[in-house]
Amino acid sequence: MKRIDLAREVSEATGLILDDADRVVNAVVLGIKEALINGNRVEIRGLGTFGVKLTKARIARNIKTGEAIPVAPRRTPFFKPGKELKII
Fold this sequence. Notes:
Helices cover 36% and strands 31% of the residues. It is of the alpha+beta class.
């Protein structure tokens, strides 16, 4: 499902015109994105939790040459589905 498909679903469910529903979807996505950038966690009941994991610095290897390459630490976003979303 693409963002516009989600906006169509919101439009049909709420009776908003498509442009307004698209603005709502964009605002939600932007809010989640900004929270993750600030290092906060976003929990949506019935859906799951968005968060950021910190990965440590490490040494990687170039596959072709075998040369050691340092990899800097970084922040990686993740999504953990809630109980209601998990499919068995």
